[in-house]
Amino acid sequence: LSSQVLYALQMNEQERYWAFLVQTYGHTRYLHKYLERCESIDRNISMYTAIASSASIGGWVIWQQAGWVWGTIIAISQVIGAIRKFLPYSTQAEKLRSLDSHYARLLTRIEGEWFRVRSSLLTEAEINDLITRFKPEQDEIEDATFSTVTLPDKKRLLTKAGADTVNHFKSYDG
Amino acid sequence: MADDENNRPVIKPREIRESRLPHIDVDIPMPPVKPPKPPENPPTADKGSEK
Question: SS3 sequence, B28-43?
Answer without folding.
Answer: CCCCCCCCCCCCCCCC
